[in-house]
Write a structure and sequence with these properties.
mainly alpha; elongated
Amino acid sequence: MNLEEIKQEVSQLPTEEFRKFSEWFEEFKADQWDKQIEEDILAGRLDAFAEEAMRDFKEGRYTEL
């Protein structure tokens, strides 16, 4: 099944089925995001950001929430 076929199928879902699909897809996207972040962390791609954040914190450049 290609993207256009998927779009066509989704656009024809009854309201309740579309709601269920939407909930599932949002969870799926969140899981994919989590996996990507984990891969980036393990690969060290976020190290520079973490170091900068720690440096800013130590130097008092932060706002309490």
